[in-house]
Amino acid sequence: MPNVTSERIESGITLLTLNRPERLNAMTADLVGELHDALGALDGDRSCRVVILTGAGRGFCAGLDLHGYGRPRGPVEAGRVESGLATQKEIAALVPRLRSLPQPVIAAVNGPAAGGGLALALASDIRLAATSARFNVAFVRLGLSGCDIGVSWLLPRLLGASRAWELMLTGRIIDAAEADRIGLVLKTVPDDQLLDEALVTARLIAANSPWGVRMTKEVMWSQLEVGSLQAGIDLENRTQILSTFTGDMQEAVTAFLEKRPPNFGQHPVDL
Residue 234 pLDDT more than 80? Predict the structure, then answer.
């Protein structure tokens, strides 16, 4: 059985499922490698407009599999430090991979999202929670630093430094209701409605211009790293002018006047 499955569930919408339900989709070398492969394939797939990421069975991802991770890809490192760092880098690279994916990623979080599972949820663009969802920064409870796999960068930017510090220093588990209250997730829904709710959001995104959505994701993530308002505005200005050359704005206006849905991506402007 594959550790990660990829399925086109609707036109433009792909469902990625972590598929080790017997271990709450805990991370192994095989699962991480297959997730890298699946994201790499989607990166070049322009027919895919939105990705939904979820977990099979009762969990989203319980973090590192404490029964054994396995050997990472690439050349075998001889020393304990070298091999450990190779594993660390392989897992952590999933976060910038999700961030740089052209398509928005909706994390449909069911059950535990701990440690590396929390990192995958934070690196997604939108998070929805089932009532069974649970979140925690598991690293600090395993004798390690709570700062791992991009969490110490992502969490303060999503929740603010004060909340992030408390969650990272205690490692306590928060349920779906608290995650909703503090803004970690967009909303909480019953477990049997989670994928339907993710599809509602995915369809709203897919109805927009492919290039416009791609640039919105790219600029929004870049704005988290921009040092000033003016630098952010400069980035926006150039992106907006670049976007006019797709022809999608003209198509949107024409479709509005003709009272029909827009047909984006069909009328690029000649340079």
Answer: yes
